[in-house]
Structure prediction request, 875 residues.
Amino acid sequence: MQTLQLHIGGMACSFCAQSIDKAIGQREGVKKVNVSLAHEQVLIEYDSGDIKEPNLKQILLDLGYTIRDPDKVKAFQEQQQELKTHRNRLLVAFGLTLAALVIMIMMWSGVMAWWHPWATFVLALATMFGPGWYIKKKAWQSLRRGILNQHNLLEFGAFSGLIGGIAGLYNPAFPATEFFGVSVFITTYHILSGWSANKVRARASESVRKLLDLQPDTARRVDEDGNEREVEIDQLDIGDQVRIRPGENIPVDGEILEGRSGVDESIVTGESIPMEKGGGDTIVGGSINQTGTLLVQVTALGDDSFLNQIARHIEEARAMKPGIIQLVDRVLKYYVPGVVGFAIVSILMWTLGLWLITGQTNLPRGIFAMLDVFVLGYPCALGMATPLAMIRGGGMAADRGILMRSGEAFQIMKDIDTVVLDKTGTLTIGEPKVVDVLTTEQTRQNDFLRLAGAAEQHSEHPLAQAVVNYAKNEGESLPEAEEFDSTTGKGIRADIEGQTVILGSLEYLEQQSVEIPADTSWISDHEDQGHTVIAMATGGRLSGLFALADTLKADANETVGRLKDQDRNLVLLTGDNERTARAIAEQVGIEQIEARVQPDQKAERIRDIQEQDKRVAMVGDGINDAPALTQADVGMAIGTGTDIAIESADVILMGERLYALVEAFEIGGNSFRKTKQNLLLAFSFNGIGVPLATTGLLYPVWAMIAMVASVTAVLANSFWGRLISKASKYREEQKEQQQTITYRVPNMHCEHCVETINKTLTQRFENIKIQTDLEQHEVTVAFTNGNVNDSSLREALVEIGFKPEK
Amino acid sequence: MEKLTFTIPDLHCEGCAERSTNILERLDGVQEAKVTFEDKSAKVEFDSDKTSFDEMKQALEKANYTAEK
Prediction:
């Protein structure tokens, strides 16, 4: 059994996906075909004894699709190229249509000329076989395989026009110019719909490309002489040594030979607090090295490496992802045979039917009726119905930092009944913060914070940084620490203002013979909530405790509340431990928790839920979430974290805002409602026209009228109305409204101080208003949301020597 | 440790002196700073490996003060 994965160009809709599925699936030796429209990929499992790779590729080429270079950048370039080709076709077709229109207007206004039919004949041929040639290739290849789709429908119409016109050159009962004109018009419309679908797709993938880091992954290999060289990951061998600097992604799985560092494994494991690692510890590719330089020996590569295992799970998930048949294609499935049926009925009616009643036949009228049915059967607005709704919805979403990658994503949103949320980086900020402080009776809180901040200020460890930030935010200016000594990951010892300060884990303090009192309910309370507790001692005695935790995003509660109001079931899925997961879930009001889920199991959990007949959305940011994002009916990547997550997702929520999730649901659902209305409008004009055409009384000009009417209706409908709920809109307006914070600034004494505050704040922040009251020592800042917030304002004030209090 | 005295001519009140002290002490390498309003002077004890008069001057300028040696 072999697998072939190909990137395909030229797919426009889920019908294409179905056509490919069908054409390849019916070949002997093919076990399984999976076509993903969103990712423009096909995954084929086949038996190489029965069919070979070139044969499979040939089928795709025969169907009129192209096979893209799997290289990420090239694929994007090819897509741009396709769009360009399509645009050129459209321009040519547009010119030809304009010429046809001029002739027809002349004709309608009574100016008759013998050359009108001949000129439109040439224009019809030029449009159909010039820019419209590609449609014929696609239509023929699908017809040959017994697949009926919109390309066939167009060709039925266009050829009917051509035949009707040719007949009209000899028989005045057939309006030749009109028939030829219709062929030109509908072909151009078809090219236009194809182009707009392409444009929507290209724009979405262009935005995705901007988010991706397309650099090849490299590592710094250290050879025997100790020289470093940057090489691509593929060139590494097991046993090679690589150096990883602070702040870099860890490129491979390996074992640490030298160095110690805090390693952020949150995108790999979901654990929110970085792990302290040193010699002998193993590290996993994809995590981030934070504090120290490491020398690592490569232990796994290729298929055995963590990242490749994830890639395999993604592929597996892709193949198992539940399909969505686009609404338009579900309708077409009945519509196309319907049109063909009416065509047959009309010719039978005027021949056999008429003969049965009157004993005579009227073949010309029967042919006229049949051609008319085909001409009217092509719903011009159909091709525009979905792209237009998507352009509107997609644009609206983009304004809010939401990127919808595919039409399917829009369609499925309203059916989602279960939303699975990752914890770290999705519900939470993803970095620890001080959540509580306890000081012993003899200690003043100010001194405590000042000393703690001073002791930690040169440590890069995230817990230390959290303490420093907290102290600074409380307005403490930090004195310099002398003579410090740290046991990485455990704690720190420093001399500050003549006192010896010990700060670190409880274990570390006990090792340093600091007594931690027996009454530690404060500690156990916090530990029960999954918080990390660290302690500080001055002069050998405990002076206080810090509790730290990864905290919820500011909009987490609101988002969860809204999703619950919409009757969606919420699940928290995390690689982190049960205790931390439960604490977060309780804070935000989620009842269902799945904790300690290994990266390879996340997609499986999603499948479990899907097997209960549920439609699932997964929201996550990490590498470990990628297979689950792919597996979910809608995968939503949040933040601009990892390429793998972005590539696996159907919807990308840019930035850290979680509420975008609610907006995505609203825009998705409402856009789909628009699509439905559009389709109804598109079909209704033609739906009425087709049965009427069987009478043979309708002139082809009605096809053009129906075309113009339906396209106008669809256009108007697409851009009319609101896609976002009143509640969300209101929320946005509220947000835009001003927020004010008043600080008491005791050391603001004179006009000069006031001037400095004004100058500094207005220089640093845009759109803020400052009011100062010198007598009350108060500063009131009014601002609209954006980069201004409490802590940034405080920071700015502290920097110029003030001590703001709330 | 080095000691340095300089003038901050645009001190307008006690508050300015206090703030200037804060600003100087926030600098990495400054051990102690004492700014007095009466004679508009700043006395700083600092580690010359870590900071310099220029850095202090810059920090003060951010807060709308000037420093003259």
User: Anything to note?
Assistant: The radius of gyration of chain A is 34 Å. Chain A has 28 helices and 29 strands.
